[in-house]
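Input record (one chain):
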Amino acid sequence: MRIGNNPQKDLVLSNPEYLHQIIIPVYIPNQEGYFKESLEILKVCLNSIFKTTHNKTFISIIDNGSCIEVKNYLEELFLNGKIHELIHTENIGKLNAIIKGLTGNNIELVTITDADVLFISGWQEETNNIFDKIPKAGVVGLTPQFKTYSSYCSNFIFDNLFSRKLRFIPVLDSEAIISFYDSIGWEKNYNQNYLQYNLAYQLDDLNVLVGSGHYVATYKKDMFEEITSFLGYKLGGDSETYLDKIQFKKDYWRFTTQQNFAFHMGNTLEKWMLEVEFQNLETTTYKAGFHKNKKISSIFYFIKSKLFQKIFSNKRIQIWFLKSKGLPKEMINNY
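The corresponding structure, as predicted from the sequence alone:
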């Protein structure tokens, strides 16, 4: 029998006090073999987040079927107020876990990151700066990589094909790029020209690299207004392209910071990871109220995300593009 009315009934939720959400799916089923050092890696990841984010950051962790030691560690963080949301589930797949973290709040920016990322001081400020200076920016990655402009950036290239702001510029930190590809197990037989030049969008006081990977990136939350409820892979398949293509619906652009602001640690703890120094957070004001795009028509969606991408992949057009955007002549034929 119910007596009286629930005091929460019909109460209107206040506007969120948080400006930035971080979502981390965690899958560490045991502490053996491949996962032997994964818990220690996770601790380094989370410590770097605690050290580099402002106090209006909401941290969500989705435990995607981890072992009891990991569950206990995460529970302790939650009870001590270090993280703000903790969801336990069986292994439902990485992207399905991320989707759980995306629902239930209205925070303007959301960073989606793997659990083996080491964040560097200044990443949050630079990310906000890019969203502020470039209204159509929708995705901002933190780790420069090879030729990211060639994947899921056709709408940006379409809009800026003849812009003088779009140019190849010298790579700022080639060692950081090498470190990333070492961390994912690549041999060093890749094209060395990729370590020298990258495609950038240049403003008066800001350079950003065109395109972004998805192992760590920040998204404008409004592009998830129409969210997929289930993806049928635990990892890989077409599930991870969901985050690569999401910006097309609202015609947002993908970028990466010119400076490296995050390291991919992989599954092996190394001494340098424990020696990274963090700056004291001095930010007292927070940017908010970034520009929001409207959903584009199905015709423009097709032209920008499919038709133009096919046209742009033509070899002759590619050579013309590389020349017109300032790539050195000796690199053009094999870039």
